Amino acid sequence: MPGTVLLLAASPVGRGRLVDAAGVLPVLAAVAPAVLSGTDTANVVELADPLEPQAVLTRLRAAAAAPGPLTVYIAGQLQLDRRQRLPHLALARTTAATVRYTGLPWHWIREELRLRSAVDTGLVVDLHADGEAWQYVAERGLDCGPNSAVYGRVVAAGGRRGVGEPAYMKAVATLLRSGYRPPLGQLHEQALARVGDSGAGRGLVLAVTGGHAPGHPFSHLPTRPGSPQARTTPPPGPDHSPGLPGPEPNHHAALVPEPNTRIGIDSTQDPHALISAAVQAGRHADADVLAARHEQFAVRDHGPVSDEALHWAEVRADLAMFAGDAVRSCRAWLAVGRTRLSAGQAVDSPAVEAAVDRAHHQWGRITDAVAARELGPALAELRLRVPGRRSGALENVQQHLRQLQAAP
Q1: Res 197: pLDDT
Q2: Rounded mean pLDDT, 255-273
Q3: Which domains does the chain carry?
Q4: Buried b (16+ CB within 10 A) or exposed e, 260-284
Q5: pLDDT, position 169
Q6: CA 313 to CA 307: how far, in whole Å?
């Protein structure tokens, strides 16, 4: 099965640029697609200094939905938005005042990769951070979700030294040009050795194999120049990640139940891997049954508005999207949005905005006019409370709803 590779290099144009992220792309482009992916064949998508976060999201979503292994290489800079103080990947038009609207929220990356398995999903990142973003990452880590292996570094902005360079990513690309991609953990260590030898500095080093605890996002912290070196407990190895199995042969195909057979829940297996394998095999009903079982368990054990229950409700909404059932997906996302709001979550919280945005997106894909007219008022009501980051979203719903209601 071919792999998928997403190369994303982004940084602002002008005075706000901290790193020449796109400068690494020619080196990465010289690497054969199969080597970038670590598979026999691979499809590569390259994004150089993109302008619009929605365009990046579209490419990321397509890559995450593709069957087979996925590797995402990201070079760029992190900044916090002024309203929610959340990390964003700065894009070409990003300024300090417009991060919330022109940057790519980091939690979008986590959300798009959540249905994948850490066994076949890897992120390689080289990020420069301004002072506020540096402090955020140093204190809280960089949450990429439990279902991705993450390797790389985050370094503090160079200050008066001018625009920095993605030295870690260039080291990765140089190593890959040999024609061989070792396991990501080995590639990571080799790249770090080269960066250390060059004197470019390691910064905060990320080495997470999946299923990590939020308190241990780094393998070690040889931080800013002049700072004392610190260490955290190393993350578990690939065969001992809590809650996840070790690498499995045949991409979990043997673990997916055959059609018309009873589906059981085995707590020793990664449910996301099983669901992902079922989706890739086109067995959407089996995938939804597995997710529904876990949703029932989460509601029973933690309550209907718990993070665990809402997670599985969101998984089922995404599964409906993968199955091409826009009506069911829209309805599910509307329910998630309402539940989060009723639980007291803020209208501009990432989870609430994501639920309403996805409901809006799926509503626009509904071809049945009757169903679209039925769901439109509920979406408009939510949009009135949750306008989201794109201007004109509420007006878009209202205009489309008027058109639907005027149609015979």
Answers
A1: 56
A2: 49
A3: 3-220 (3.40.50.1460), 282-406 (1.25.40.10)
A4: eeeeeeeeeebbbbbbbbbbbeebb
A5: 94
A6: 10
